[in-house]
């Protein structure tokens, strides 16, 4: 007769990782933001900005708090059968569309190469195993002129033309981008 006692040591490694990740997200979302009122799925600014405080941004960079001034509204895209939740940008954000801007954040690579030409930039580093998932209001797709060296431990300043993207998965794109000194 088999014992019905549950043991963590018998869990498949992938299931264990999912369990730990779920616990981390639960703790971060429910325990850490009990005093903050956020829409479902929206991370509190203080939690999102834990690696890049708003008071220490390099001169001339736009803040992540500004980029997060987006409301989701029900809409429809060409060819879509069902309604989607699409971004509605604030007037301040609309004023930045197709303008050259600078953004300070961490590279989230989209390939395994040390040099990245197409990547995401975010206020949270990719090496943080307990950082909660981010939404499209806290990530910018970057299309760089040239491949960039990066460190997952250090934030960078990147400049380029900001494009507002009307999509449920991606809100911002920075094209013709270059890394600049802070």
Looking at this protein, list some descriptive labels.
globular, alpha+beta, five-stranded mixed β-barrel, 182 residues, OB fold (Dihydrolipoamide Acetyltransferase, E2P)
Give a verbal description of the structure:
This protein has about 180 residues and is α+β, with helices and mostly antiparallel strands. The protein has one domain: OB fold (Dihydrolipoamide Acetyltransferase, E2P), CATH 2.40.50. The strands form 2 sheets. The chain has a 5-stranded mixed barrel with strand order 4-5-6-8-7. Strands 2-3 form a two-stranded antiparallel sheet. The chain is globular, with a radius of gyration of 19 Å. About 20% of the residues are buried. About 15% of the residues have low confidence.
Morphology call: globular
Tell me the series of helices and strands, N- to C-terminal: HHEHEEHEEEEE
- The CATH architecture term is Beta Barrel
Mean pLDDT across residues: 77
Helix run count:
4
**Helix-strand makeup class:** alpha+beta
Question: Any idea of the CATH topology?
Answer: OB fold (Dihydrolipoamide Acetyltransferase, E2P)
Number of separate strands: 8
Q: What is the share of helical residues?
A: 10-25%
- CATH class reads Mainly Beta
Percent of residues in beta strands? 25-35%
Q: Are there runs of 5+ residues with pLDDT below 50, and where? A: 14-36
Number of domains: 1
The largest beta-sheet arranges its strands as 4-5-6-8-7
The rounded Rg comes to: 19 Å
Distance between the termini: 66 Å
Give a short account of the largest sheet. 5 strands, mixed, barrel
């Amino acid at each position: 007769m088999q014992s019905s006692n549950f043991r963590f040591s018998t869990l498949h490694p992938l299931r264990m990782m999912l369990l730990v990740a779920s616990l981390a997200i639960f703790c971060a979302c429910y325990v850490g933001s009990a005093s903050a009122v956020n829409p479902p799925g929206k991370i509190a600014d203080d939690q999102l900005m834990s690696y890049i405080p708003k008071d220490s941004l390099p001169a001339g960079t736009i803040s992540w708090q500004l980029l997060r001034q987006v409301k989701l509204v029900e809409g429809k895209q060409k060819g879509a059968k069902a309604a989607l939740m699409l971004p509605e940008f604030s007037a301040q954000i609309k004023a930045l569309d197709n303008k050259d801007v600078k953004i300070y954040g961490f590279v989230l690579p989209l390939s395994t190469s040390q040099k990245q030409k197409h990547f995401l930039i975010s206020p949270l580093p990719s090496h943080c195993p307990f950082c909660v998932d981010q939404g499209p209001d806290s990530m910018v797709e970057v299309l760089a002129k040239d491949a960039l060296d990066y460190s997952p431990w250090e934030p960078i300043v990147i400049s380029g033309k900001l494009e507002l993207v009307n999509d449920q998965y991606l809100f911002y794109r920075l094209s013709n981008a270059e890394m600049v000194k802070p």
